[in-house]
Amino acid sequence: MQDDAPIFGFNAAREDIVRTVVSRVVLSTKDPLLALNDAAYHETKRLEASKRGPEEQKELAEWQRLARALGRMPDGERREKLASIVEHVGWDVAGNFDPRVFKVSSKLLPPIVTYLLAPRTLVRLARDPKQLVSLSALDDKVRVEGPVEELRELSRQGTAVYVPTHLSNMDSIVFGYALERAVLPPATYGAGKNLFTNPVLSFFMHNLGAYRVDRRIRHNLYKDVLKTYSCVLLERGYHSLFFPGGTRSRSGGVERRLKLGLMGTAIEAYARTLMANRERRVYFVPATINYLITLEAETLIADFLAEAGKGRFIIEDDESSRVGRVTAFMRKMFDMQGAVVIRFGKPIDPFGNMVDERCRSFDRRGREVDPASYVKDESGRVTLDPVRDAQYTRELGDEICKAYLRDTVVLETHVVAAASFERLRRASPASDLFTVLRQRDVVVVPRDELAKDVVKLRDRLVELADRGEIVVGGFLRTASGGDIVERALRAFAGYHASPVLASRPEGLAIMDTNLLFYYQNRLAAHGMAWDVIAPPGMPPARPPVFAPPAARDAAQGGLS
Amino acid sequence: MTDRQVPSVGIVGGGPWGRALATAARRTGAEVVLHSRRDQPGGLGAQLRSSERSPQASTADPGLHVTTDYAEVAKARLVVIAVPSSVARSVLRALGDHLGGQHLVVHGVRGLGVEGLETVSDLVREETPARRLGALGGPVQAGELIEGRPSAMVIGSRFPEVITAATRAFQGPSLRVYGTNDLRGLEWASALVGCLSIGVGYAEEAGAGPGLLAALISRGVDEAARLMAAAGCEERTMLGLGGYGDLLASIALEDRPEVVLGKALARKVPLDQAITMAKLRVEAIPLIPRIVRFAEEHRVDANTFGALSEILAGGRPQAMLDRMFTG
């Protein structure tokens, strides 16, 4: 672990950070009346709709009082009010980082797992913290891939922004663990406040994430504080972790459109270091988190189908809040090799250029570029320009989405789900998604036929992988169709509540069509599975073009 | 106005279009560096060399500097690319050695890559470190710029400062410059208008009346807009000056290469001869069949483009009308 990473000094700097955030937000608020009205309106609406305890009741009354008084308030008083609200929000967002707790909690995953599997061990653990379960217990369950050496060196040269895909509430824990495994310094993380109240995950969250994001709060002042907070942290060299998808992928698909708000703060942070004459470069590390099975798959896909887009933004009662399900999930994870694969992608600068281990930027033709040149105006001065930076960030978002596709790691459940789902579609051709999904326990596929389909799909995925457009791991690459199906069955069984594929004398019956849809969606953006999950305004992915079989055979020396 | 405030523009491409843009920029008082390949016969270099001997030597203009060195062009912050699309990649790669993140790169190249339908700004992004990019479009013609006849041009960029810089460099009493932030849309619109202009020339020569011509243009624009939506652009960009406006201008522009080509084809001139008659390279010829394929892949009705494709393949004049009105 790098003990010199800035986060270990976080507590000393926290007060200073919050003050900087508060003064920047207050100064940049041009119209305090509008900002306060907006905040009062959204907070009143939120609190009225929520189940209120005495605390919330008091809060609501305060906002209502403020809303009534605002119109008559002199400007000076408004400014004061604004400052006090921003300060309150600022401290609420700023979390804790206790290095002592971090040292424990970064190694927390195994003991927590142990606790979940056998709760009494925690008592022993509390008595003797040295009795931590060795991290190596997870080594072959969780695979960490990518240019780790380069990233390690890079983390000493600049400030990292990790931007992984997002499937599960386990992600932040799993990713934190991956950083630890890769001997990379810890990253600050804007964890959803709901995770702090989640009875299972709050245990991990406290003291891990450096700040809290309450996604129920919708007013602009709050968003300003969050962005400014993130910017100040990056400016000061704190490595950060964002999930640019914004929320867990409901469909199970790889993100194709990102929420750019927080990512956009990176350019401002970099420009500010230049303006202060202490340049510190910022680089992005796209990453994928790939699960053989997803903890919350059932709830997420149900949500996707129920809303077909509208989505409940925060789900507070899914599998991740039920100790029993988390335990079952962990057991499964422990049971299977390579159940989770975290793959770091190649680092890029905020302008989409490649970055080497010394944090130098290179364009696509390999020429070195000075990243500062992108934030300079006509006269060569470094400027802050939100419109310009938003556009850079948009293009960066496109680059990150491309990296997600390249670094998606195909696992057995995805392939078997895609092959099964294709069978479902063929059983009711030209049907809409919901008609296809209704065919529960209707289609039975003989095992060897499914195995054959799986091999065909696997071979095309391998071809795609050889072109660098996706990643296919070792087992999947070489295993027989039957073994791949077996492994997927084993992964599904024992975790998901109802059978996904049920064994019958005549073959495998397709049971949980929703879950198969969920897992096949991981390949949809590559055009390797039915793509009905493309974001609005984006054409569905089309199957990639493969070399004609004749040419392939010739290349293989005419094997047939 | 002090010297510092005079915008400095670099233009790459010594052909008629590059020369016209240089003239337009000079008219606004901009200091212009123009890159022209030495070995280009009949290019600006040759013309300037010959004009040096004439009494009205244009070298008398101290604000226009012609060079064969990309480094000279890169001294300007705003660099305008005005080369044929066939050489765009190699020019950009060479130019890219001299560019940095500070440059604003705008191109005035009509056309899309035939392989992957990539836009020229995609090429700029691949071949250079520049990121603040833009494209020029709209109905303005080289001749109008050179003679100073009033016309209109569109600058598309997602970066307001690029729109500002291009407007400052080119807008004057005889040229109105409009801005749009749909860069990709403007590039697609320009390319598709190039295709449709062939149809306009063809229909005119084949004796189509105003009604038929109007139907052809409207339906073509409608198809183009839907194609653009499928390509992730804004449909309305096709309905603006960079699309519809540009196409309307082709009715009156008898010497527009695409129109000349279309007319020749209507007279049953074989394609290779028709290309020679158009004098300039017509970027649309390889593009049309590719667009038809794109339309099929994305399930967009594009009968006008289908008909154009048949005409290029030597189809009979009637084919076009049949395709248009049976779709």
Automatic annotation (TrEMBL), chain A:
Cellular component GO terms held in the UniProt record: endomembrane system
Annotated compartments: Endomembrane system
GO BP term, example: fatty acid metabolic process
SUPFAM superfamilies for the chain: Glycerol-3-phosphate (1)-acyltransferase
Main localization, broad class: membrane
Enzyme class: transferase
Pfam families per the UniProt record, alphabetical: Acyltransferase (PF01553)
Single GO MF descriptor: glycerol-3-phosphate O-acyltransferase activity
Topology versus the membrane: Peripheral membrane protein
EC number: 2.3.1.15
Phospholipid/glycerol acyltransferase domain span: 160-292
Pathway involvement of the protein, from the record: Phospholipid metabolism; CDP-diacylglycerol biosynthesis; CDP-diacylglycerol from sn-glycerol 3-phosphate: step 1/3
Record-given protein name: Glycerol-3-phosphate acyltransferase
UniProtKB/TrEMBL annotation, chain B:
GO molecular function: glycerol-3-phosphate dehydrogenase (NADP+) activity; NAD binding
Any Pfam family the entry gives: NAD_Gly3P_dh_N
Residue stretches making up the Glycerol-3-phosphate dehydrogenase NAD-dependent N-terminal domain: 9-158
Disordered, as annotated region: 36-63
Entry's EC annotation: 1.1.1.94
Catalysed reaction equations from the record: sn-glycerol 3-phosphate + NADP(+) = dihydroxyacetone phosphate + NADPH + H(+)
Top-rank EC class of the record's enzyme: oxidoreductase
InterPro entries: 6-PGluconate_DH-like_C_sf, 6PGD_dom2, G3P_DH_NAD-dep, G3P_DH_NAD-dep_C, G3P_DH_NAD-dep_N, NAD(P)-bd_dom_sf
GO biological process annotation, one example: carbohydrate metabolic process
SUPFAM superfamilies linked to this entry: 6-phosphogluconate dehydrogenase C-terminal domain-like (SSF48179), NAD(P)-binding Rossmann-fold domains (SSF51735)
Positions bound to NAD(+): 13-18, 142
GO cellular component: cytosol
Gene3D superfamilies xrefs: N-(1-d-carboxylethyl)-l-norvaline Dehydrogenase, domain 2, NAD(P)-binding Rossmann-like Domain
Family: Belongs to the NAD-dependent glycerol-3-phosphate dehydrogenase family.
Descriptive protein name: Glycerol-3-phosphate dehydrogenase
Originating organism: Polyangium fumosum
